[in-house]
Each structure stands twice: as structure tokens, then as C-alpha cells.
Amino acid sequence: MTATPAFLAIAALLAATPGRAAEPAAAPEVRVGSKKFTEGVILGELARQVAGAAGARAVHRRELGGTRVLWDALLAGEVDLYAEYTGTLAEELLRMPGASDEALRRALEARGLRMGAPLGFEDTYAIGVAEATADRLGLRRLSDLAAHPALRLGLSHEFMDRRDGWPALRDGYGLAALRPTGLDHDLAYRGLAAGDLDGTDLYSTDAEIASYRLRVLEDDRRVFPDYRAVLVWRADLEARAPEVVRALGRLAGRIGAADMVAMNARARLERVPEAEVAAAFLARTLGVAPAARGEGRPARLLARTREHLVLVAVSLLAAILVAVPLGVLAERRRRLGQVVLAAAGVVQTIPALALLVLLIPLLGIGAGPALAALFLYSLLPIVRSTHAGLASIPAELRESAAALGLPPMERLRRVELPMASRAILSGVKTAAVIDVGTATLGALIGAGGYGQPILTGIRLDDFGLILEGAVPAALLALAVQGLFDLSERVLVPRGLRLAGGGR
Amino acid sequence: MIALTGVSKRFGATVALEPCDLTVAAGTTRVILGPSGCGKSTLLKIALGLVTPDGGTVELAGERLTPERLLALRRRAGYVVQGGGLFPHLTAAGNAALMARFLRWEPLRLSARLAELFDLARLSPDVLDRYPAQLSGGQAQRVGLVRALLLDPPVLLLDEPLGALDPVTRHELQEDLRAVFRRLGKTVLLVTHDLGEAAFFADRVTLLRAGRVLQEGTIEELVRRPADPFVARFVAAQRPPLPPAEGPA
User: Fold this and answer.
1) Do the Cβ atoms of A500 and B131 come within 8 Å?
2) Distance from C-alpha of A216 to C-alpha of A125, rounded to nearest angstrom
3) Which residue of A22, A141, B116, B158 has the fewest C-beta atoms within 10 A of its own C-beta?
4) Please, what is the end-to-end C-alpha distance for chain A in angstroms?
5) Which of A400, A414, A496 sits opposite B81 (nearest CB)?
6) B247 or B49: whose pLDDT is higher?
7) Is B48 on the interface with A (CB under 8 A)?
8) Which of A393, A396, A404 would best serve as a mutation to test chain B binding (most B beta carbons within 10 A)?
């Protein structure tokens, strides 16, 4: 799935941008991945633009999903690099709690991976205190809190409960005298704004730090786990694109916590596209001119279209291959047929989101569960229409076919399926149109497609972005419908069309 | 050539056919007569293995009908139903040639055979490429006959083949069908409820009622010596075109 036409089209677009190097064919290809949250996407954009400026044909496969998805994609070579956190590497991915950077590097090397020097900022649990209060009380470090037991902290329920949250903080800094309130995270921000609270827990690079004018207290006793941001890449990238790896090295130590907070805030709160946020940062700190504008709208649309079409086409094809034989079976064996139709009907009633979530433990995240869900949804219309099409064949015609001495499979192939073709095709059409709509939900689990801009649009409250997914999805549904109407002329035998009905 | 021995059939609680025997000598035409629902179609379907009898044996084209021999024996019998039973997705030629295509006949042999049979069935060659929806009732019936005859089976089974036709077409087709039967020397089993049609075709007639054979013999025996009051009623039920002339006072 690497050298797909859509990818080539993106590469061509990048190459066609004025000012870009003339030999895109000789440039190494670098695929950057990113996790499904704003900071991850910004880091991915930074890496893509740095790689692009170093002469690579760089693509950014954004918002792929959670940690596990990116890790697996990196190991499988589906992406060449992505941004990770040392704590996540040690605790979750390599299962080496408390390992030193050296130990992590060795463990990564054993898997054919490399870890860059820390980018500079940490994204870990932190306590933020309103700037004015912090100034008034002289709060700079977490150890300063012990002297102010009257401080009103509002902490999220999760932070209160997690072993590495409040309990660790309380024991590590001797804060037993403080009486924090457990409350919803959003309420905490509102409480801070209203002056009802003095501080709350947060991630140290949250966009809200800037907008609510909070001071992040330094974890001077290093109680919270170490979550420094690093780039992780495949060892083979160093041979393929040494200049890219060298260029990426220039990012090390350059992104401070304040930089990251500011970038998160620009993307999340001001809704500046991640690519622009990253480009501005690179221009300012490294003097890197943007190699090319991030994925432009046409390229983005092309990529989403390709993902969407693959989701629909693959699931539909698989469903046809399974559902038509099932429909035949259902028509042949009445008792079994009722079971098959009932089962397909039950699948149809499962809400799409629930089905996707049910499939995640089996198939992970990404296109897999989305394809499986679409496949399951496509079954019922096709099974039912195949069954109905066959059942509508008049008995005397079945008997005439049998009386000729044709074996059962030949009767099916030469007489019954062609006679049911119109009904079967209409079932496939229904399934296809349902698939086009339902596939937009695939973006929820990292399958891409037109749901991607819709989701991002909802995340950023950007109506234009929502339309960028919704409009093509609607157009595609219409196109699919039109295509099937046309294909009826080819696939339904002429004699049946003359006869009028589907029989 | 066709021998049903002690065949019977019930569908659930309904008796479709009581145990009955039927033998059709090679080269002769037997007509099964009876009112609707008397079991005459069931009898025909049993002969072709389309309906499995509850008991008894079937011999077709001189061979015992068993599940293993079913497909082979069906190819030695032509089957024609009311309206022709043509498959709407295939042209007239496609319908007639379905079995030959499956058996991978040479195209030349196939087209020669089609031309011969179209001629025999008095169909114009331009009908070959028409779809059933484009055929008249009589044409469809003739194409159905061509399809049944294509593999040159010794046996023909016809289930009310002319039931859906207007009287003039029906009359013409009766003539043509009988000519074909005689010319080709087929062993024919034909189902109808029309006494006149039976008289026209039959060497011998079997009259069924409610799954039971009431009488078997020539049409003349049926008319002159009905074995059962129902036979007499069935014979008398054919309405003449003009009211009977009144006798002298």
C-alpha cells in the first residue's frame, strides 16, 4: 500500500510547488506518523517539514490513532518515524519501568529503531496555579506548596485516583495538609477563571496553560513520571536518508515547554492549521523555510478520497463474495435461511459506533475494524436481495431448468443467478450507499476517509473542515448510486430489462 | 418406454396421487386427462424426477430412474410447460441451446440443429435472437418445443402445453405438434383437461380424478363406455359451439 496512485499524486503536487527541487524521483521517501491529538499532529508536521526541507519526499500520515497503532506501524515499516514520550516508551511499549535513556536506546536498537535526543519539553502531569496567586505567594516549584496548606486545589477525578497522580504528589512533597477537591476537569478551568480555585492538575503542555494564565510548578523532586518528547525512527532511515536524520537532529532541545504550550494553543484555541503552526515555529527557531505548504486542500481531498474508496470497495467486495453464497444457501435451506437472515438483521441493528468499539479488541485500531464493520453492515442487504431474487423465480422456470438435466450448480450459474441479477444488484447498491455513509465513522478509530476532516472539524469547531468531509461523502454516495444505475445496463441481461420486472 | 409402477405422492395430509400404474408404449402418445388438481401434473413431474414419489418406481426411456441416473435420464426426455417456460434472460436461441452449450457442442453442429428444429417448429429464423418478452404466445410455445427437442430425446413430456393460447393459435399448434410427434416417432406423455385436445393427440387416454385413475383406454372407450359416473360427466362437460338442435315434436 506504499506507492499508491494517491501517494504519487501527493508527491507530484509537492514537486510541482514552485521553488521545490527539480528531481523528486531521486529524493528519498519519508513517512511521518502522528497520534490522534493536537500535540502529536504538530510534532508530526514539524518532522515532515524538516524532512522536506532536507530534500526528502515527506508525507505526514496524521492522526493515525493511539500509541499502539503508531508503534505497530513503525515496527511494520508503514511509517518511518513519529514523536513519542520517554515515559510511554519505558512503561507501555518496552515494559522497562524507570529505564534510563541509554537502556531505552539499547532496547529500541534491538528492534531496529532509533531514538533521537529529547526535543526539549516534557508532557507529563503537572500542577498549574493561577499566575496572580503564584506571584502573590511566590510559588515556583511543587515543593513550595507545602508551605500553603490553605491553597484551594481542584483536581480531576482521574488524577485523584491514579497512583502516579495525587497520592504520589502528596507523599513525595509532604502535602497531606492540603485538601484538594475532586471535580470535572472542565469545571476546574472555570473555577480557576472565576477565582474559586487556586490550582488544578494538567498536562504540562496543555493549551489552556496559556489561555488561563497558569503557572506550571516545577517538579523539583521528580515525582511525576518522565515524559520527555523524543522522535523515534526506523534504523533503515539512516541509510536511506542520512541528511533527513541529521536535519531532524537539529530539533533536539529546541522545543521548550512554553513553545509547545504556545503551539498547542494556536492550533487548538486559535484553530490555525497544524502545518502553519509548525512552519511558523521552524522559521523562527531554525530558520527553516517551509519546503512546501502542508498538504493542500486538493492533495488532502485526494488522500481522503482514496482512503474512503478503499474502505468502501474492499468491504463491499468481501461482502458480495460472502453474502451472495449466503443468500443462495438461505434460499435453498429454508430453516437455515431464517437463521442467516435473522443474524444479518441483528448485526444491522448494532449502532455503528458500538460495533467499531466491539471490533477493536479483535482487530486493533485503523482500517481493520472499519472494514470489518462495513463488511458486516453490507451483508444484510445483499443476502436479503439475493434470497428475494432467487425466491421470486417462478416454480415452472426452476422446474424447466431442472428438467433439462442441468446439474444444480449449472442451474444456479446459467439460469437462477442471472434471473436474480437485478435484485442482487439492487442489494449491492443499497449496501454501497450505506457503506459510503457509514465509512465516515471509520475516522473515529483511525481508518481515515472523509470522516477525518469531519472529526477534526468537530474537534476544532471548524465548519469549513466539516464540510470538506461531508460534501464529498454526499457526492460519493450520489456517484455510487449513479454508477450502479449505469452498471445495471451491463450486468442485468437485456432480456430481463425487456421483460420489465425483476423476474 | 415410460413405465410408472405403483407411484404415489402425498403433500402433508393431502393425497396428490394414490398408488397408480402407467405405461406408455414406445412411439405412442398418451394423454392424461382430468380436472384441475387431479394429480395429473404431479404424475408428469414424478416421471421426470422433479417430484420424488413416496413409493413405486419410474422407468424412463427404458431405464430405471435413480438419483444417480437422474440428470442423464432427464437429458433423454424433453419437457414442455404451459407458456413455454422460457428463461427471460436468454434469447430464443439461448434458451434452446442452453443444454447443448453446457455439453459443449460444436457451434456448427449447434446452429445446424437449431436451424433444423426451427424449421420443424415452423419458426422464422429471425426469432432466434429475440428475447421471450418479444415473442408471441405461440412463438414462445414453439421455442419451448425446440428446446425440449434439441438433444433429440426419445421421450417428450408436455404439461398443458397449449393451455394459454388463443383458439386459432392453439388449433395450429395442435396440428404442428402432432405432426412433429409422428414424424419423429417420439414417446409422448401429454397432460390436458381438454377432451377435444386429448382426442386429437391420444393413442390412449388416462382419466384422473382426485389422485386416482378412473379409467384408461382409447378415447372412444371413454366416451362410449365410461367406467365411472364422473367419466361420463367429464365427457359430457364439453360444450358444443351451437345449442343442440331440437328434435321433431
Assistant:
1) no
2) 10
3) A22
4) 42
5) A400
6) B49
7) yes
8) A404
Cβ within 8 Å, pair B79-A399: yes
Q: What is the mean pLDDT of residues B183-199?
A: 91
Q: What stretches in chain A show pLDDT beneath 50? A: 1-25, 291-293, 501-503
Could you give the CA distance from residue A170 to residue A184 in angstroms, rounded to a whole number?
20
Which long-range contacts (C-beta less than 8 Å, at least 24 apart) are formed by A393-396?
A: A393/A419, A393/A420, A393/A503, A394/A503, A396/B81, A396/B82, A396/B83, A396/B85
Contact A432, A480 (CB under 8 A): yes
pLDDT in tens, B107-128: 999 999 999 999 888 899 999 9
Beta-sheet strand order (sheet of B2-11): B14-24, B2-11, B55-60, B63-64
Residue with cell 364422473: B230
B130–chain A nearest CA distance, Å: 8
Chain A interface includes B133 (CB < 8 A): yes
Nearest chain B residue to A393 by CA: give it.
B87
CA closest to B157 among chain A residues: A403
A405, A419, A498: residue with CB nearest B87: A419
**Are the beta carbons of B114 and B96 closer than 8 angstroms?**
yes
pLDDT per position as a tens digit, B53-90: 998 899 988 889 888 898 999 999 999 998 889 999 99
The answer to whether B133 contacts A495, with C-beta atoms less than 8 Å apart, is yes
Q: Are B97 and B114 in contact (CB under 8 A)?
A: yes
Nearest to A419 among B71, B74, B89 (CB): B89
**pLDDT value of residue B86:** 93
- Residue B217, SS3 per DSSP: strand
Give residue B248's pLDDT.
54
Looking at beta carbons, which residues of chain A come within 8 Å of B157? 403
**B93 chain-A contacts, CB cut-off 8 A:** none
Whether the Cβ atoms of residue A34 and residue A5 lie closer than 8 Å to each other: no
Orientation of helix A352-363 relative to helix A367-391, angle to 10°:
120
The CA-atom distances, in angstroms, between A480 and each of A291, A308, A320, A379, A430 are: 37, 12, 16, 18, 10
Report the amino acid identity of residue B227.
Answer: A
8-state DSSP, B54: S
CA B163 to chain centre: 11
Contacts of B74 in chain A (CB under 8 A): 402-405
Q: How many CB atoms sit inside 10 A of residue A313's CB?
A: 12
One-letter amino acid at A474 equals A
Torsion of CA A419, A420, A422, A424, to 10 degrees: -160
Tens of pLDDT along A133-159? 899 988 999 999 988 988 999 988 778
> What is the pTM (predicted TM-score) of this model?
0.63
Residue B96: predicted pLDDT: 93
Interchain CB contact of B98 with A (< 8 Å): yes
Alpha-carbon separation of residue B68 from A300, A340, A463, A491, B134 (angstroms): 63, 31, 69, 35, 38
pLDDT 10s digits, B88-100:
999 999 999 999 9
Counts for chain B of helices (H) and strands (E), in that order: 9, 10
pLDDT at B244: 66
Give dist(CA A217, CA A432) in Å, integer: 54
The DSSP string of A49-74 is HHHHHTT-EEEEEEEEESHHHHHHHH
Distance from CA of A413 to the nearest CA of B (A): 11
B85 at A interface, C-beta within 8 A: yes
Give the end-to-end CA distance of chain B in Å, rounded to a whole number: 54
